[in-house]
Structure formats: structure tokens, C-alpha cells
């Protein structure tokens, strides 16, 4: 009975999210130049390095941190049109959000509070979704959160580091939102650092604790290194830092 209830809840929640997230026509004003960038990459075999669309800032140097997402836009759009894009970019977040809540709260199907929280979260993130590159970041962030919870419950293996490296390698070429993933990894190191600090304050040996916590400290390294493997190399980070520190961008671009 409980399993059947979970299945019904999962299907109902997925359909609710799919309808909520479905946007056709797309409301993203940037989709046109995303398609144009993909054309530059696929047809002319070159990556954009400067703004060639704006008459106010022609030639402004920047990195196309969404290049792989733009290629996906172009391929999916070529096969299924804007309708196909709308379906895919509604289907994916609907699946992942429903799965996230089912994994985090196994008994959510019998909880009105959990269901209300699910609906609230879906409504809150809806404005940020659609046929947009940041939809990828929302999905990747949720996957990383669940993976970290699983990894914390057991000893880390070499395969975990390799998976994390591949995960951030893909994310860094899909959307600049990978920095939020790095921030989440940094937060996950707070507990080991506090434990180490407590050992130091109490004048207790830190070697056993440090040896046990070393994999957690090193977890951030492969993720960070993977972000430099992109068509722009270190310049990607320079652009991200410039954008993050620009008052004009922060006040005018959502």
C-alpha cells in the first residue's frame, strides 16, 4: 500500500511540475544568441571570445560558459523545434525535483507538510527554469547535494574522486553555475575543520583525525581542477570573477 502511494505521489508531483515548468513560447530573451553561438561552434568551428551582437559594447571580451548547453539547444531545437526544447527542459527538472524529494523524504507521500514544501519549492524555482542554461545548474546542484550525503556515510574511494572530476568537468562546460557546486563542497568541509580545530584546542593528537579527514579536504581539489578544462581555460574564471564583482551586472541582469 505504501509503495503504491509513493508511486501515485511521484507521478502526480511529476505532472504538476511538468505543467508548471512548461513554457512555450520560451520567455528567455537570450535564446536567440545562444542559437547563434552554437552555429559559430558547430558550423565555423570556433568559440566566441567577444560580444558581436551588442551595439553598446561591441568586441567586449567574455567567455561563453554555456557553450555546451548552447550546442544542446541547437541540436534539440533542430530535431524538435521550440516545442521539443520546452518539453525536454520541463521534463528534466520535473523528474529531478520529484526524485530529490522522494529520496530525501521517503514518507513524503503520506505527509501533508512534505507535500506542501514540495509545492512551495516548485513554485519558487519556477521563474528560474525553462529553456535556460541555469536549469542545468539547478539539476546538477540537487544531484551533487544527494551525492555528498551518500559519500559522507562511507569511506571515499578513488572512483568517487574520478566521478566528481567528471561531474564538474561537464558542469563547467554547461553553465557557470558550477561555482555554487564548489561552494557546496566547501561548506561540506566545515564539519571536518571544526573537528580538527577542537582537537587542537584540547591539545589532543590531530594525526588520527587528520588522516581520517584528509579525503574530505582533498575532495575539493579534483572538482576545482576540472573547471579549468574548458575551451577558455583560466579565462573562464576571470570572466566569472569580473561578472560577480560588477555592480552594473548585479543590478541589471537577473
Task: Give a short overview.
The protein is mainly α. Helix content is 70%, strand content 0%.
**What general form does the structure show?**
flat
Radius of gyration equals 21 Å
The profile of the biggest β sheet is:
none
Per DSSP, the total helix count is 12
Poorly predicted runs of 5 or more residues: none
The fraction of residues assigned to DSSP E strands is under 5%
Distance between the termini: 45 Å
Q: Report the average pLDDT across residues.
A: 84
Q: Order of helices and strands, N to C?
A: HHHHHHHHHHHH
SS-derived structural category: mainly alpha
State the helical fraction: over 70%
| Total individual domains | 2
Total strands: the figure is: 0
Task: Describe it.
With 254 residues, the chain is mostly helical. The protein folds into two domains: 1-132, no CATH class; 151-254, no CATH class. Helix content is 70%, strand content 0%. The chain has twelve helices and no strands. α2 crosses α3 (67-104). The longest helix has 38 residues, at 67-104. The N and C termini lie far apart (45 Å). The model has no long low-confidence stretch (mean pLDDT 84).
Amino acid at each position: 500500500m505504501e509503495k503504491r502511494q509513493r508511486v501515485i505521489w511521484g507521478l502526480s508531483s511529476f505532472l504538476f511540475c511538468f505543467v508548471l515548468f512548461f513554457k512555450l513560447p520560451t520567455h528567455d530573451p537570450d535564446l536567440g544568441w545562444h542559437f547563434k553561438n552554437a552555429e559559430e561552434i558547430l558550423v565555423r568551428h570556433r568559440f566566441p571570445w567577444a560580444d558581436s551582437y551588442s551595439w553598446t559594447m561591441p568586441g567586449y571580451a567574455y567567455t561563453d560558459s554555456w557553450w555546451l548547453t548552447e550546442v544542446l539547444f541547437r541540436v534539440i531545437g533542430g530535431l524538435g523545434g521550440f516545442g521539443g526544447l520546452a518539453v525536454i527542459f520541463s521534463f528534466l527538472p520535473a523528474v529531478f525535483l520529484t526524485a530529490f524529494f522522494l529520496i530525501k523524504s521517503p514518507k513524503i507521500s503520506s505527509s501533508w507538510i512534505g507535500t506542501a514544501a514540495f509545492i512551495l519549492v516548485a513554485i519558487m524555482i519556477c521563474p528560474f527554469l525553462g529553456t535556460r542554461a541555469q536549469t542545468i545548474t539547478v539539476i546538477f546542484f540537487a544531484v551533487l547535494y544527494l551525492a555528498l550525503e551518500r559519500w559522507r556515510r562511507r569511506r571515499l574511494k578513488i572512483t568517487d574522486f574520478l566521478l566528481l572530476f567528471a561531474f564538474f568537468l561537464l558542469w563547467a562546460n554547461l553553465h557557470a553555475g558550477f561555482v555554487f557546486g564548489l561552494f557546496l563542497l566547501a561548506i561540506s568541509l566545515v564539519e571536518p575543520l571544526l573537528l580538527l580545530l577542537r582537537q587542537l584546542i584540547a591539545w589532543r593528537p590531530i594525526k588520527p583525525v587528520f588522516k581520517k579527514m584528509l579525503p574530505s579536504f582533498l575532495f575539493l581539489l579534483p572538482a576545482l581542477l576540472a573547471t579549468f578544462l574548458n575551451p577558455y581555460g583560466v579565462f573562464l574564471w576571470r570572466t566569472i570573477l569580473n561578472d560577480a564583482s560588477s555592480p552594473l551586472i548585479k543590478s541589471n541582469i537577473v
